[in-house]
């Protein structure tokens, strides 16, 4: 008997909405990027508020140039969040924990615990190290080690240690979500040459990646299904 296929979510907000109360919530997103999910969340839940933290200067500047009601942007990392303790009801890390330096992951999770109220939730969504898209990306940016480190940091947070905040595991979900690119140039711009990283890609490697993408290229661009892993934690009292 084969395992059933994981559910598909075109918009991850639908999954988040099914797991935690969002109406009226004060939320911090660490590593918000363009804050696409946050903007959707605020449109769906009129009483919610989101603070988006971003360390990439260019992305932060773009965010400031596209303001939204009840959405505040700050240049800050998860390791040092400029808010008082117990300020937020919930926290988001969407494909961002594995971008935190491995030696700082524990500190980032502890800092998120600090700014959450007792009973507050932390939603961590990480890409699974598998699938056709991952096979292409790892040609120039192999994230196997850092993605494993992110899961290990969550395991340590849940295990607890003297002097560290206490977390409780609330839920765990696996799902697939579509990743779409208008074509090879769009893939290069978004995935190979992002503003927040230099993958040291020379012309030979660029052509190798393009060749790996060719079998996935359709008339309407590149289409992948990306496997994802969500872990929902709660800050204990």
Essential attributes:
237 residues; Rossmann fold; eight-stranded mixed beta sheet; 8 helices; 8 strands; 33% helix
Measured by DSSP, the beta-strand proportion falls in: 25-35%
Structural class by sheet pairing and helices = alpha/beta
Silhouette:
globular
Q: Would you list the SSEs in sequence order as H and E? A: HEHEHEEHEHHEHHEE
CATH top level label of the domain at 12-129 and 141-178 and 227-235: Alpha Beta
**Terminal Cα span:** 43 Å
- Cα radius of gyration in angstroms: 18 Å
pLDDT under 50 segments (min length 5)? none
Mean pLDDT: 96
Brief overview, please?
It is built from 8 helices and 8 strands; from the N terminus they run αβαβαββαβααβααββ.
Provide structural commentary.
Helix content is 33%, strand content 28%. With 237 residues, it is of the alpha/beta class. The chain has a domain at 12-129 and 141-178 and 227-235: 3-Layer(aba) Sandwich (Rossmann fold). Strands 1, 2, 3, 4, 5, 6, 7 and 8 form an eight-stranded mixed β-sheet that branches. α2 links the parallel β1 (26-30) and β2 (49-54). The radius of gyration is 18 Å and the shape is globular. The termini are far apart.
Question: How would the blueprint of this fold be written?
Answer:
Blueprint: H1 12-19, E1 26-30, H2 36-44, E2 49-54, H3 57-64, E3 71-75, E4 88-94, H4 105-115, E5 116-127, H5 132-137, H6 144-159, E6 167-181, H7 184-192, H8 203-213, E7 217-218, E8 221-235
Parallel strand pairs: 1-2, 1-4, 2-3, 4-5
Antiparallel strand pairs: 5-8, 6-8, 7-8
């Amino acid at each position: 008997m084969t395992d059933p296929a994981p559910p598909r979510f075109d918009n991850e907000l639908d999954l988040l909405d099914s797991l935690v109360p969002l109406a009226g919530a004060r939320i911090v997103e660490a590593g918000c990027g363009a804050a696409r999910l946050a903007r959707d969340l605020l449109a769906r839940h009129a009483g919610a508020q989101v603070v988006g933290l971003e360390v990439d200067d260019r992305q932060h500047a773009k965010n400031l140039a596209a303001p939204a009601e009840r959405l505040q942007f700050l240049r800050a990392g998860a390791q040092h969040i400029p808010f008082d303790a117990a300020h937020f009801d919930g926290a988001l890390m969407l494909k961002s924990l594995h971008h935190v330096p491995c030696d700082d992951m524990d500190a980032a999770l502890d800092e998120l615990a600090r700014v959450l109220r007792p009973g507050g939730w932390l939603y961590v969504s990480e890409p699974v190290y598998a699938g056709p898209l991952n096979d292409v990306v790892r040609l120039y940016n192999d994230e196997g080690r850092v993605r494993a480190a992110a899961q290990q940091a969550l395991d340590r947070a849940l295990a607890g240690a003297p002097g560290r905040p206490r977390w409780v595991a609330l839920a765990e979900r696996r799902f697939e979500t579509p990743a779409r690119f208008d074509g090879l140039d769009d893939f290069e711009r978004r995935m190979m040459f992002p503003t927040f990283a230099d993958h040291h890609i020379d012309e030979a490697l660029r052509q190798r990646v393009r060749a790996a993408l060719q079998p996935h290229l359709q008339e309407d661009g590149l289409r992948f299904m990306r496997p994802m892993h969500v872990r929902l934690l709660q800050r204990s009292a």
